[in-house]
């Protein structure tokens, strides 16, 4: 009798699972493909989010998990499609029909079933990376590696030795060494994002000082242009903009000091951890100046 009851329970569970998968394929997947894939699939991931696999949905994007199986009220996906929060509405071009929202709600409420093809199984690790992405060389632990012993006329340091070894492996020949005209242009573009003026180019080319290159690099690093060039990366990270850039795109007339302050702080080589801390506190340091306090206020209020 017990065995018979267990078999019946398994049969019921199997029927429910098949029904859930059929519901997903018939009702849910078409909505995701039609409404979401354009901006959240393998070719584009706005906000760091993909919706073309349950693993990506559960790990989420920049704002955290997109759904919690069994809990639609705690799922960011449902909050977005309901348009209840004017700052968090998806899709941005218009609200979904109520019937489609109800389909997504029911799908999540019943466990967010997703058919799994073993051949295409995706395992998402902490941070939203797949196992394949996590194995990429960039994410491997740092280790001490002895510089290879290579013979090459252009090699001058240990980094060059690694490059030269890889060139040999790939049967590549090094490009000709840059002349002084090209070298000064590369340095300016790298550090300032702008080309040198004719006068600046000529000054470097004609400089006979053996340390002319090192001195030029120091000069460019000390320039406000260097801060402006590299502050753009921090401003991109915090999503700085001088307008809303969304539904109404209103102009933010008081936000510019944040951009100015960020470029000044970058010139002073503030680490990202310091910039992050400045955004989370506005208290004045003991003995700190009014100007320094204003900088912290701008850094923390930001956008």
Q: What brief labels describe this structure?
A:
51% helix, flat, disordered N terminus, 3 domains, 303 residues, mainly alpha
Tally of individual domains? 3
* Low-pLDDT runs: 2-10
- CA distance, first residue to last residue: 67 Å
Structural class: mainly alpha
Descriptive notes:
There is one protein chain. The longest helix is centred in the first third of the chain and has 34 residues, at 2-35. The chain is 51% helix and 0% strand. The chain has helices spanning 2-35, 54-59, 76-82, 98-109, 131-134, 158-169, 180-192, 198-206, 212-221, 224-237, 256-267, 272-280, 290-301. It is mostly helical and 303 residues long. The model is unreliable at 2-10 (pLDDT under 50).
């Amino acid at each position: 009798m017990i065995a018979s009851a267990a078999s019946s329970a398994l049969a019921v569970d199997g029927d429910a699972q098949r029904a859930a998968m059929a519901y997903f394929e018939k009702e849910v997947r078409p909505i995701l493909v039609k409404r979401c894939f354009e901006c959240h699939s393998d070719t584009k991931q706005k906000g760091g989010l993909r919706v073309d696999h349950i693993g990506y949905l559960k790990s989420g994007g920049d704002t955290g998990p997109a759904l919690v199986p069994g809990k639609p009220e705690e799922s960011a996906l449902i909050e977005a499609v309901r348009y209840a929060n004017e700052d968090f509405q998806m899709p941005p071009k218009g609200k979904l029909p109520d019937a489609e929202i109800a389909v997504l709600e029911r799908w999540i409420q019943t466990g967010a079933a997703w058919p799994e093809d073993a051949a295409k199984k995706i395992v998402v690790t902490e941070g939203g990376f797949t196992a394949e992405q996590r194995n990429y060389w960039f994410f491997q632990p740092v280790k001490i590696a002895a510089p290879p012993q290579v013979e090459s006329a252009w090699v001058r340091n240990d980094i060059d030795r690694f490059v030269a070894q890889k060139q040999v492996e790939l049967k590549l020949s090094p490009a000709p060494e840059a002349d002084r005209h090209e070298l000064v242009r590369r340095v300016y573009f790298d550090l300032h994002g702008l080309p040198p003026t004719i006068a600046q180019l000529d000054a470097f080319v004609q400089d006979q000082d053996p340390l002319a290159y090192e001195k030029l690099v120091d000069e460019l690093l000390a320039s406000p242009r260097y801060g402006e060039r590299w502050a753009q990366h921090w401003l991109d990270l915090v999503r700085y903009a001088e307008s809303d850039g969304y539904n109404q795109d209103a102009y933010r007339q008081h936000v510019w000091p944040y951009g100015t302050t960020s470029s000044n702080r970058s010139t002073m080589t503030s680490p990202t951890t310091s910039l992050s801390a400045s955004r989370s506190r506005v208290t004045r340091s003991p003995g700190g100046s009014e100007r320094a306090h204003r900088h912290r206020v701008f850094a923390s209020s930001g956008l």
